[in-house]
Write a structure and sequence with these properties.
single chain; seven-stranded mixed beta sheet; four-stranded antiparallel beta sheet; 14 helices; 13 strands; binds pyridoxal-5'-phosphate
């Protein structure tokens, strides 16, 4: 794993930030989102905001396509092709040529499908390798699958910095989330994929915190399978339709267990026996959820709007300026209060978030609540992480600056001690 650079640049002034915003080519895209006035939204990594186009488009789908044209819309409105159409659009953001991604189901369900398929490609091996700190749903899905398969497999968990040394000849699948949801640390996709392949393992990436945040090159890295969410950086709406990638070279042997009718070679032949579709369509299971999928498509379009401005590369460059400004300003004012940044300073070593810790988890929770009370929305992740997502489509440099100063102020004046900030809510 590459060394991470832990040096942060100097904190800018607010005037510096105003000047950066004045020359920011992404500035006009902010109006594409229905953000409440005065809110600084640093949680687009958990639930992206509502693109204005989504409300208008959903209204048309509901009133015209569903309301007036009814069942004919499966053909006339292109509903039946939506999973592959939206999948191909997502492919533009994650470096996948057309015909290798479908938008379907949830990330958890898609993970079950690809992990099962990956194990079937390595019948002589028994180990699913992942990391202890992986997002829990990934671990739970793998545990469920191991049980389902009769307990002959093993989910082997290692620490993130031991991954490279842990992929050995017993590993059937390396199942990794590229960006750590707590710290924002990013794994080098091409390097780790090459290591897995050198040991004969299948490489499965979870792109939940990658898609739409920075350039991902699935094809170029030689990844075998991937899954990801639409509702984080892709702004696809709460619980929105997720996606699944299978490299074309695996399609003929891609054998997933949720063999529903839309993955059939001829769904409308209503045959008794299952025959998988050619190509990526065999990754589908049931009827596409058209309202959710419409929202997901609009969200993906909201990110594709960055393409004329340099796409994900330019987005990540701006995110890095925002993160550098936020972290440098916060540390300058609050390192003395025990604030530590756990996100790598190196631009290519992180996703699009900045995370801090405080000496006490209860304090970290209360500080996040105090920020939310001031209209600055980040989130808390157990046990002690204050997490802030930076989505450059709608955030300004002054937002990063103002949010950091509010954080410093809450710590300096100890406003977080207010009892209403300390009581925990169900969703943190
Ligand atoms: C957010 C997230 C998920 C979410 O899965 P759902 O099925 O949409 O609930 C999965 N994996 C990772 C790494 C995530 O960050």
């Amino acid at each position: 794993m590459p060394e991470t650079d832990d040096r942060w640049p100097a904190a800018p002034t607010r005037d510096d930030c105003v000047a950066l915003d004045a020359e920011d080519p992404f500035a006009p895209l902010r109006d594409e989102f229905a953000l409440p006035d005065g809110l600084i939204y640093l949680d687009g990594n958990s639930l992206g905001p509502l693109p204005r186009r989504t409300a208008a488009r959903l209204r048309a789908v509901i009133e015209t396509e569903w309301g007036r044209d009814l069942i004919g819309s499966w053909n006339s409105a292109g509903w039946i092709d939506a999973p592959t159409r939206v999948g191909d659009k997502i492919g533009r953001l994650v470096g996948a040529a057309p015909g290798q991604i479908v938008a379907a189901d949830s990330t958890s369900v898609n993970l079950f499908k690809v992990l099962s398929a990956a194990l079937r490609l390595r019948p002589d091996r028994r180990v699913i390798l992942s990391e202890r700190g992986n997002f829990p749903t990934d671990l739970y899905v793998a545990q469920g699958l191991v049980t389902q398969l009769g307990g002959r497999h093993e989910l082997r968990l290692v620490e993130r910095d031991a991954l490279a040394d842990s992929i050995d000849d017993s590993v059937a699948v390396a199942m990794l989330t590229q960006v750590d949801y707590r710290t924002g640390h990013r794994l080098p996709m091409a390097e780790i994929t090459a290591m897995a392949h050198a040991r004969g393992a299948i490489m499965l990436w979870d792109l939940a915190h990658s898609a739409g945040a920075f350039p991902v090159s699935l094809d170029e890295a030689g990844a075998d399978f991937a899954v990801g969410c639409s509702y984080k950086y892709l702004n696809g709406g709460p619980g929105g339709t997720a996606f699944l990638y299978a490299a074309r070279r695996h399609h003929a042997a891609f054998d997933q267990p949720l063999t529903g009718w839309l993955g059939h070679a001829a769904p409308f032949a209503f045959e008794t026996g299952y025959r998988p579709a050619e190509g990526i369509a065999r990754a589908l299971c049931g009827t596409p959820p058209m309202l959710s999928l419409t929202a997901a498509e609009c969200g993906v379009d909201s990110v594709l709007a960055s393409e004329p401005l340099g796409g994900t590369r330019a987005l990540h460059a701006k995110a890095n300026r925002l993160i550098d400004c936020f972290v440098a300003t916060a540390l300058e004012g609050a390192a003395a209060h025990g604030l530590r940044c756990v996100t790598p300073a190196g631009h290519d070593d992180r996703g699009s978030q900045a995370s801090f810790t405080l000496p006490d988890g209860d304090q970290a929770y209360a500080v996040v609540q105090a920020l939310i009370d001031r209209g600055i929305v980040g989130d808390f992740r157990a046990p002690d992480i204050l997490r802030f997502g930076f989505a450059p489509l709608y955030l300004r440099h002054v937002d990063a600056y103002d949010a950091a100063h509010a954080l410093v102020d809450i710590l300096t004046r100890e406003t977080w001690r207010d009892p209403r900030f300390v009581a925990r809510k169900a969703v943190t």
